[in-house]
Amino acid sequence: MAAAPPSSLSYRTTGSTCLHPLSQLLGIPLDQVNFVACQLVALFAAFWFRIYLSPGKTSPEVRHTFATIFGIYFVIFCFGWYSAHLFVLVLMCYGIMVTASISNIPRYSFFVAMGYLTICHISRIYIFHYGILTTDFSGPLMIVTQKITTLAFQVHDGLGRRAEDLSAEQHRLAIKIKPSFLEYLSYLLNFMSVIAGPCNNFKDYTAFIEGRHIHMKLLEVNWKQKGFHSLPEPSPTGAVIHKLCMTLVALLLFLTLTKTFPVTCLMDDSFVHRANFLTRLGYLYVVMQASKPKYYFAWTLADAVNNAAGFGFSGVDKNGNFCWDLLSNLNIWKIETATSFKMYLENWNIQTAIWLKRVCYERVPWYPTVLTFILSALWHGVYPGYYFTFLTGILVTLAARTVRNNYRYYFLSSRTLKLVYDVVTWAVTQLAVSYTVAPFVMLAIEPTISLYMSMYFYLHIISLLIILFLPVRPQAHMQRQPQTLNSVNKKKAD
User: Fold this and answer.
1) Is residue 454 one of the residues assigned to a domain?
2) Are residues 180 and 34 in the same domain?
3) Catalytic: 156?
4) Given a cut of 60, is residue 105 above it in pLDDT?
5) How does it sit in the membrane (predicted)?
6) For this structure, is 380 an active site residue?
7) Number of domains in the chain
8) What distances in angstroms separate CA 234 from CA 80, 228, 312, 314, one per listed residue?
9) Per-residue pLDDT at 398
10) Does 340 share its domain with 194?
11) Which residue range(s) make up the domain with 479?
């Protein structure tokens, strides 16, 4: 009698099942094991790609071909037949790129890509229940959507708009020639970013494939003024090792901290109804901190894979050090030490924030902030928790900005006061972020309402009171801040 297939959730995946024994051994869902395995293979493939398929040894066509083939294989390995969604979207949008008029390319590409992504998000909600997914194929689809829309707008900038109508950045990234089919596939499906991103610009990617990437970035930062008299050849090895060490720490935290404090703890009856307010608030902070390592791991490893292939060089810093953070999606130190909601958000999912700015905020004629928020919400998905987080985030951002404008300059007259201000705002920021993003990780509406009711909607109420009743200081007070800083610096010099 044939053995029944394993019923464990860890076995449920549409991708390859060859690593199921390892999944059982580690107690980690199979789709997550497949993801890590693909990224580790991609890391070794990236080193091989940089050394043995370097631009000096092979043609751009060969590099494009190998990058695409590896990427397609990784997608099929991880997602099985779900990968068809990715390929269908790519082919449809290439058809738009070839057949549509220049003025319609960004419009059609945007609505087709976002529409297809939204349909897939909705189908996953109705086919599967909250948090119980066989294989979450939306991640690669979200990255591809970013790239499709980015490329469409940059082609339109290069072929359909006058140079004087473009911003400096739009002019730098504008594409004068439509990509070939191979270039299009390689940009969207290359093995370095197809699984976990990040989004990047077509010009940067083709320059990398053709061997012009580092030289181009050095020219952008005027490398001769940085003290280099001959063209340097920076190696990514140091940056890769550093990022791999960070991913190892994140993995260890995931296997310990995340498993010890799962998000389901927030839905536990003893937490919601029995613990006192301060205990709930502190425990919420711990659980939200425990949910971060998986993002730190995935994004930092993806960054390291690109660097290992020689992609991601951003130039030379003020100290003459080579920087490999062009594709970095987060700055962990600035996230964990953020003293404002704005500072936190600017260092989290960096490439997505850049994408939102380039395809929406800078281009829409009306209500850019509101429309950018709507696009961000739709891109993330249709779980109610996402919208709770974004709406709460708007209130918190406005309230934090009001408080900062009214009171920050009082604390700039001495180092001691500034330190007190930084410590207090750090604690408030971390707790506010934990409160705001809790629905994002809980996904469903019922536990979100239950959690916020147990916390008396305190941050919503405080934020509304600040926005409605705290007076906005006159502009003269706002201008006193740099004067105070200058006076402090003058005293130090004296």
Assistant:
1) yes
2) yes
3) no
4) yes
5) Multi-pass membrane protein
6) yes
7) 2
8) 38, 12, 11, 11
9) 87
10) no
11) 330-483
Q: Position of tokens 């190892």?
A: 248
Q: Are 24 and 10 contacting, i.e. CB atoms less than 8 angstroms apart?
A: yes
Spatial CA neighbour of 288 closest among 165, 422, 103, 433: 433
What token pair was written down for 444? Answer: 């469903």
Instruction: Please name every residue paired with 129 in a beta bridge, in sequence order, or none if there are none.
Output: 132
**CA–CA distance, 326 with 75 (Å, rounded to integer):** 24
Q: Is the same domain home to 34 and 175? A: yes
**452 assigned to some structural domain:** yes
Select which of 64, 156, 380, 460 is catalytic. 380
Neighbours of 345 (CB within 10 A): 17
| Domain identity same for 198 and 343 | no
Residue 72, CA atoms < 13 Å, CB-side half-sphere = 13
133: left (phi over 0), alpha (psi -120 to 50) or beta: beta
Last residue of a domain, one of 167, 194, 211: 211
CA–CA dist 289, 141 (Å, integer): 27
Among 64, 85, 349, 460, which one carries the catalytic annotation? 349
Question: Is residue 446 a contact partner of residue 374, using CB atoms and an 8 Å limit?
Answer: no
Q: Which of the listed residues 192, 211, 230 is the one where a domain comes to its end?
A: 211
Flag whether 263 is in a domain. Answer: no
pTM of the model: 0.88
Give the model confidence (pLDDT) of 33-73 as tens digits.
Answer: 999 999 999 999 999 999 999 999 999 999 999 999 999 99
Predicted pLDDT of residue 223: 59
Residue 313 pLDDT grade (very low, low, confident, very high; cuts 50, 70, 90)? very high
The pLDDT, as a whole number, for residue 31 is 86
**Both 182 and 47 in a single domain?**
yes
In a domain, residue 464? The reply is yes
Three-state DSSP string of 413-426: CCHHHHHHHHHHHH
